[in-house]
Amino acid sequence: MAYQKELSSIHASFNLQEPIRHYIERNSDVIVVLLDSTKAFDTVWDDALLYKLHKYGVTGDLWLLIDEIYSDMRSSVLFNGRLSRWFELKRGVRQGGVLSALLYLVYINDLLCDIEDSKLGCVLLDISVSSSVQADDIALLSTTEKGMQHLINICQTYSEKWAFKFSPTKSNVLRYSKKNKNVTSNLTLYDDIIPLVTSAKHVGILLNCKFRSMDQTLNACRVLRSTALSVLNSGIHPSI
């Protein structure tokens, strides 16, 4: 959903929070897993990306141009006026590149198709809402732990096939329940337990299992204060 015309992180958050509220209002538990992709843009397998582009119909001169852009890449580091030795870059899309975000979306699109084709996770009417994605921010939704583990396994299998990795320790599980106050979780990723939390950020927006709006308000105030101080410390003094 990211980096597309007229779409933003607000849409990704809406697509996650609305199904949660829908199920909670009907007294159904909901499990949310927020997957953290380790250095997502830096670990894209370039040969696999070119394969996927060709699969989706990018051929001819355009494909050759992208192939040329990502062939024989080298980089160096400038620090304190000194330049390091040049080294090869064999993975990743260009930092800040105009095409980089779009290329990453192409790279993970098949994962989203695999999730939808599995028929697992949450559904509204006949629409699958089992995943809400903005670039490398992937959220999974299911009403059962068994179903969620299957969704996680799909993501793990895809990451192993296409040579990138999610971080189990930086990923989070949130369990929304009106009935059970003592929730637990045994969900695993690469055989490691994913931490169970009561609140976490998704696309910069705070999620809370208690639906406490005050937490979101306080978080927004902290962000505003931090941003204002950064602006003032830079020497800029806007009139308010």
Automatic annotation (TrEMBL):
Coiled coil: none annotated. It comes from the Eukaryota. Transmembrane segments: none annotated. Residues 1-207 form the Reverse transcriptase domain. PROSITE patterns: RT_POL. Pfam families: RVT_1. This is Reverse transcriptase domain-containing protein.
